[in-house]
Design a protein that fits this description.
Blueprint lengths: L1 E13 L2 E3 L5 E5 H6 L7 E6 L5 E9 L6 E4 L11 E11 H6 L3 E3 L10
Parallel strand pairs: 1-8, 2-6, 3-5
Antiparallel strand pairs: 1-7, 3-6, 4-5, 4-7
Length: 116
């Protein structure tokens, strides 16, 4: 049996840009991506803490160290700059493997930086 489990989570990060005219996706600072093992083009779920909207999209790399969290394309209508969101990805794995799995979770500060 295979089950879906939490793989990666960026908790309470702030939206820095919303670009309706872009073709789609979420732009994430590459430092944040590396910290939780999210890769470019990976499917992620977005949970908007500020307004309750939920949607999924795919990731594109943002400039390393830029703190960018940008919602692009049609999903830009579901957020506003400064909204707080949670970004998560899931993995499918064998039930026994899942029991031992530890997700990568970070809690960025108010500037979308990883506290040291």
């Amino acid at each position: 049996m295979r089950i879906e489990v939490l793989k990666s989570k960026i908790h309470r990060v702030g939206i820095t840009e919303a670009n309706l005219e872009y073709i789609g996706s979420i732009t994430i600072d590459e430092d944040l991506m590396d910290a939780v093992n999210i890769i470019e083009n990976e499917r992620v779920h977005i949970y908007n803490i500020t307004n309750g909207n939920r949607f999924d999209t795919y990731v594109i790399k943002g400039e390393r160290g830029s703190s960018v969290i940008g919602i692009n394309g049609a999903a830009a209508r579901k957020v506003a700059v400064k909204d707080k969101i949670i970004i998560v990805s899931y993995a499918s794995m064998d039930f026994e493997e899942a029991k031992k799995h530890k997700p990568s979770i970070i809690f960025p500060d108010e500037f979308n930086k990883i506290p040291k």
